[in-house]
Amino acid sequence: MLSVAVTGNIASGKSTVLKTWARAGVPVISADDLSREVVEPGTDGLREVARAFGEDVLGPDGQLDRGRLRDRVFRDEDARRKLESILHPRIRDRREEWMREQRRRGVELVAAEIPLLFETGHAHGVDVTVLVDAPPAVRLERLVRLRGLDAEEAVRIMSTQADARATRAMADLMIPNDGTPAELEQRALELLARLKARLLLERG
Question: Sheet containing 173-176: which strands, arranged edge to edge?
Answer without folding.
Answer: 28-29, 109-113, 2-7, 128-133, 173-176
